[in-house]
Amino acid sequence: MYAKIRNGLLLACALGTFAGCADVKPWERGTLAKPEMALEPHPGLRAQRDHVYASREAATAGATAAGGGCGCN
Fold this sequence. Notes:
Blueprint: H1 2-19, H2 29-32, H3 43-57
């Protein structure tokens, strides 16, 4: 019984993996190249958030060099 469940789960995982693969047509690439689709759409905003977090927490979470809690870095 457990073998049937395990085999069913393996089959579902395999089908789920293959379902993510798709061909992108040339006319669809413009939609995927929009700035909203980027993993980091606003790098300047991310840098500002990192700076505010680093100055408030007196830590950088491994992003850059450590600074003080006063916000003067």
